[in-house]
Amino acid sequence: MNTTIIKQLKPRLVAQAAVVFAIAFAAKLFYSTSSVNDLRWILAPTTRVVELITGEHFWFESYAGYMNADRSFLIADSCSGMNFLITAFLMLGVMKLRRGLTAKVSWSFIPAIMAVAYVTTIAANTVRITVAMRLHRMSPEMIWINPDQLHRLEGIFIYFGFLLFLFTFAQDLDGVDRHTQKRGGLLRRSLIPLSLYWFVTLGIPILNGAYRNGAGFWEHTLFVLLTPTTLILPLAAIKRLLRGRKFTSGSFRYS
């Protein structure tokens, strides 16, 4: 890439990066001060999809959330998936900005990734809430950890799983070179969604002093650090195994 193109792209990329991070910061600030009433733009469509899948009916109670008919389950502000939405938006933005180092990227990518992040968040929220409702109705004897820990584990697993899927899908959709993907490996490529997930869910709260909350925060930190890793490692091992089998099969065929 010649120097002239770099000089032409740099101001544009800096401006685009500034807008992406400003939007993410504004969203995080909004979420930190919002009530469930302020989050109906994402909770309402999530609830509608949950209703279609589960057959349950929910109604909205101001400053509480969406309550089901027997009042046994509440879709509250913590179910909005705002941290996931911010992380997904940032991840897609970083991917596009990286591509902008070698090609001109239109400003239209910003509303596009906002829409993708929003739709993906509703899908992830729906899966998380549907699974949570089933776990909520399980017999306590069938659960080996306390309900709060189970709910946290389930949420991290589903949200990061969706983030990893979105990352892989975006790479394929964006035409990332296959050789580059293989050379980088799943573990190395997963550093982008993983680092952004940790930054949004742990880094920002720590900067805001959440560590002062004591043991509860450090337990949450442990879950957030370990759960995504336990998801990535088996996937990387399976992918390596499949690649090894494919190589062995190819060698046998052409020997």
Would you spell out the secondary-structure blueprint of this structure?
Layout: H1 3-33, H2 40-54, E1 58-61, E2 65-68, E3 74-75, H3 82-99, H4 109-136, H5 147-173, H6 178-189, H7 191-207, H8 215-253
Antiparallel strand pairs: 1-2, 2-3
3D structure, described in words:
The protein has 255 residues and is mostly helical. The protein has one domain. 73% of the residues lie in helices and 4% in strands. The protein has eight helices and three strands. The chain has a three-stranded antiparallel β-sheet with strand order 1-2-3, with helices on one face. A hairpin with a 5-residue loop joins strand 2 and strand 3. The longest helix is centred in the C-terminal third of the chain and has 39 residues. The C terminus is likely disordered.
Entry keywords:
about 260 residues, mainly alpha, 3-stranded antiparallel sheet, 3 strands, disordered C terminus
How is the main sheet built? 3 strands, antiparallel
- Count of domain modules: 1
Helix % is over 70%
Helix-strand topology string = HHEEEHHHHHH
Strand content: under 5%
What is the molecular shape?
Answer: globular
Helical/strand content category: mainly alpha
- Global mean pLDDT: 84
Q: What is the end-to-end distance? A: 41 Å
Number of helices: 8
Our Rg estimate from Cα atoms comes to: 21 Å
Total strand segments:
3
Taking pLDDT < 50 over at least 5 consecutive residues as the criterion, the unreliable ranges are 251-255
Question: Order of strands across the biggest sheet?
Answer: 1-2-3
